[in-house]
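Q: I'm teaching a short session on how sequence maps to structure, and I want students to see two examples side by side rather than one. Could you give me a first protein with its sequence written out and its structure tokens following it? Keep the formatting plain so it prints cleanly on a handout.
A: Of course. Example one:
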Amino acid sequence: MKSNDSLYKFTDFISDYQDILICEFNSSIIQKSYNEQTYSFPVKAQLFNALKIIADSKNKSIREKKFTIFMGDFGSAFELFGIGIKSKITTKITDIISSCLNEVKGYETMEYGRIPFVPLIPCYRFESGIIVEYTSNTEIIGKMGMDEEFGTGLEIIYRMWESAEGLGMKEK
């Protein structure tokens, strides 16, 4: 178990209120179309392909962006799975991500939304080619690795996230 000071060092404080661009997927279509245990796997695989394209871009302004990626189930019966990115991201990055996610069977639409009205939580963060994966597993917080799950080879660092408003802080 890591000390509280060590955990704080690897904690990002993220606002509960975010304007996001949401890619929506029909969970049942994904489950019927792919032979995977979890319906989010094909979506995450395409997301990581997009992040690899961004990380490998020759364009410095694309490659060195920083943005948080939100995920979760929503809809009246939680029939949709969504991936959200901050709406104030460049069109080039939005195009790269949406073109990859559009390949997933079950992709429905892309639209603007607002957290917390769409119940998505921070799952990843892209920081100039490095992927931050948010976890609650205190044994791996602060550790680094490579993406083997999706085969991109992207560098991953494990961190925690906390609500900025819940602690009376500003987002960092």
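Q: Perfect. Now a second example for contrast.
A: Example two:
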Amino acid sequence: MFFVYFLFAFICSVFVYIDSEKEQMPRWWAAVIFFAPITIIYYIIITKQRKSLIPVAIFVLISVLVGIGEYFLYSRLKDKIMYASYSEDIKEILVFTDDLKYSVTQLNDLTLELEDMQGITSPTKIDEVLTLIGKMQSALKKHDSSVKKFLAQMDTYQDSIIDNRFYWLFKLQEYYTEQVVVRYLSNLALYLESFSSLSKYTRDNFVEIETRVPVYIKNYDEYYMQYIRILDTQNLVDVGRMRFQHNFVLHNSQLEPYLPVILQKRFINIWRKDK
């Protein structure tokens, strides 16, 4: 706090110090103004008398601007100030919570992008889908790694967490070890693998599938049905995860900034077998 306050008080006291000689006022007014800038209003009134309205108005305006500036700077830096007071153990764990949130955000963004890729009609488009699936698989592995590191750090620094009263971290740990969340992530990996297999087979045999060569259609049907089964399972698991997270946030609202955003859009059947 007090990012610009002392500079403001110093400038006011210098002004009063210079003005006090001109107005033949005691110089100690400068010290009074420095420690209590608000008293400058009284100083202006007794020295300027009838001409005090404009200086007082200017001072009030500047004071308001200083107050706004203080609030703005503090709101931007308060997290850093608070973060600096934490022990190194706590800082290290909080870094992992940030990594978790970033990795989930990245995964969510890629999920939405994948959902928007409908009407795949050429091998070139399929390559675009495969590239996106690859990015999602990498993001999922990164998230899984972040979760494991976070849980390991929680075990390592458990005593420090308790000593510093960061009990909410145990609740966050509870979320990431909840069975429905673990299952959602494992099923998502299966979904992406199935979607990748279906996409590769379709790309590599695009003409044969388009011309409905029986053996290729049969293989395509097998890939497609497996994809649909895993997709349906994934959607059911995701509904359970959303329900759990909603209830979890209701009872632990302080953890909402650390939890992944629940996507409103769900996976859709991007691939549809020709009748």
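Q: What should students look for in example two?
A: Point them to this: The mean pLDDT is 78. Also worth mentioning: The two ends are 68 Å apart (CA to CA).
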